[in-house]
């Protein structure tokens, strides 16, 4: 696990976007795992700027969203199908046919989850999974006590997660109570993981994920077992890391050819 600590949230997005751009340049048909929420927005904005100036071609890139609310209308601006279309597919000029989101409106939810797993496998798996982290350590919507072997499934959102997401809705009561999410087992099968976090509200979760025990009470701690993980965080999100100075020194002294 490589931890990169940067001065500002804006720099987090720029560096993470550079890493993704490097992947797409090497592999134009890369498969990306797409996170929603506020954490990755700066990444998508930076990638879109590269697409607009002609320095990055994403026309062959495929994407799989991490999650979707259950029961929310597809046309609702905060459905993740709508968010991914608005924040990723259109600005990055992706082929909409190559971008998939779990079907939270399916009559048979379990079958929809199985189809989603099959689609990821059929695409050859995810090359790089973008992740955020919740204040309680969740990734995707894998709340505390989620199984490390879990696959795409329906989950009940905790009150804390619903409260955190209420800012995206007109009233707290509008926040859905259930979602479909890729499981921790599904996420762990991505060839590379890239987690970004910004702000003091994420500091405790980042420290638990990086330096705490591997435990289902902090789902993000499973990242410690993955062979290729990069965490890019700002100073505020790094505030509780005991080895922050070591991480800064390690990154500053990497050979130039290893720099992101």
From TrEMBL:
<feature type="site" description="Part of the allosteric site">
    <location>
        <position position="153"/>
    </location>
</feature>
<dbReference type="InterPro" id="IPR006148">
    <property type="entry name" value="Glc/Gal-6P_isomerase"/>
</dbReference>
<dbReference type="InterPro" id="IPR004547">
    <property type="entry name" value="Glucosamine6P_isomerase"/>
</dbReference>
<keyword id="KW-0119">Carbohydrate metabolism</keyword>
<feature type="domain" description="Glucosamine/galactosamine-6-phosphate isomerase">
    <location>
        <begin position="11"/>
        <end position="227"/>
    </location>
</feature>
<feature type="site" description="Part of the allosteric site">
    <location>
        <position position="156"/>
    </location>
</feature>
<dbReference type="GO" id="GO:0042802">
    <property type="term" value="F:identical protein binding"/>
</dbReference>
<keyword id="KW-0021">Allosteric enzyme</keyword>
<feature type="active site" description="Proton acceptor; for ring-opening step">
    <location>
        <position position="138"/>
    </location>
</feature>
<dbReference type="GO" id="GO:0004342">
    <property type="term" value="F:glucosamine-6-phosphate deaminase activity"/>
</dbReference>
<dbReference type="GO" id="GO:0006046">
    <property type="term" value="P:N-acetylglucosamine catabolic process"/>
</dbReference>
<dbReference type="Pfam" id="PF01182">
    <property type="entry name" value="Glucosamine_iso"/>
</dbReference>
<feature type="active site" description="For ring-opening step">
    <location>
        <position position="136"/>
    </location>
</feature>
<dbReference type="GO" id="GO:0006043">
    <property type="term" value="P:glucosamine catabolic process"/>
</dbReference>
<protein>
    <recommendedName>
        <fullName>Glucosamine-6-phosphate deaminase</fullName>
        <ecNumber>3.5.99.6</ecNumber>
    </recommendedName>
</protein>
<feature type="active site" description="For ring-opening step">
    <location>
        <position position="143"/>
    </location>
</feature>
<comment type="function">
    <text>Catalyzes the reversible isomerization-deamination of glucosamine 6-phosphate (GlcN6P) to form fructose 6-phosphate (Fru6P) and ammonium ion.</text>
</comment>
<dbReference type="GO" id="GO:0005975">
    <property type="term" value="P:carbohydrate metabolic process"/>
</dbReference>
<feature type="active site" description="Proton acceptor; for enolization step">
    <location>
        <position position="67"/>
    </location>
</feature>
<keyword id="KW-0378">Hydrolase</keyword>
<dbReference type="GO" id="GO:0019262">
    <property type="term" value="P:N-acetylneuraminate catabolic process"/>
</dbReference>
<dbReference type="GO" id="GO:0005737">
    <property type="term" value="C:cytoplasm"/>
</dbReference>
<comment type="pathway">
    <text>Amino-sugar metabolism; N-acetylneuraminate degradation; D-fructose 6-phosphate from N-acetylneuraminate: step 5/5.</text>
</comment>
<comment type="similarity">
    <text>Belongs to the glucosamine/galactosamine-6-phosphate isomerase family. NagB subfamily.</text>
</comment>
<feature type="site" description="Part of the allosteric site">
    <location>
        <position position="146"/>
    </location>
</feature>
<feature type="site" description="Part of the allosteric site">
    <location>
        <position position="155"/>
    </location>
</feature>
<dbReference type="InterPro" id="IPR018321">
    <property type="entry name" value="Glucosamine6P_isomerase_CS"/>
</dbReference>
<dbReference type="InterPro" id="IPR037171">
    <property type="entry name" value="NagB/RpiA_transferase-like"/>
</dbReference>
């Amino acid at each position: 696990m490589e931890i990169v600590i940067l001065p500002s949230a804006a720099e987090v997005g720029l560096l993470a976007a550079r890493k993704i751009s490097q992947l797409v340049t090497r592999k134009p048909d890369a498969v990306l795992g797409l996170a929603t929420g506020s954490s990755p927005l700066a990444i998508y904005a930076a990638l879109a700027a590269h697409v607009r100036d002609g320095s990055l071609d994403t026309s062959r890139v495929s994407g799989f969203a991490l999650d979707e609310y259950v029961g929310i209308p597809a046309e609702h601006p905060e459905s993740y199908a709508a968010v991914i279309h608005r924040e990723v597919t259109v600005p990055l000029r992706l082929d909409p046919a190559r971008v998939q989101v779990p079907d939270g409106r399916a009559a048979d939810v379990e079958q929809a989850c199985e189809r989603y797993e099959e689609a990821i496998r059929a695409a050859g798996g995810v090359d790089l999974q973008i992740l955020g982290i919740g204040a309680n350590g969740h990734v995707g919507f894998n709340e505390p006590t989620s199984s490390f072997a879990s696959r795409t499934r329906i989950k009940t959102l905790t009150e804390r997660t619903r409260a955190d997401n209420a800012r995206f809705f007109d009233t707290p009561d509008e926040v859905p109570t259930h979602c479909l999410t890729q499981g921790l087992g599904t996420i762990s099968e991505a060839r590379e993981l890239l987690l970004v976090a910004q702000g003091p509200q994420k500091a405790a979760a980042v420290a638990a994920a990086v330096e705490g025990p591997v435990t289902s009470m902090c789902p993000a701690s499973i990242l410690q077992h993955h062979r290729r993980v990069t965490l890019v965080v700002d100073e505020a999100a790094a505030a509780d890391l005991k080895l922050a100075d070591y991480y800064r020194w390690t990154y500053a002294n990497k050979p130039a050819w290893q720099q992101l």
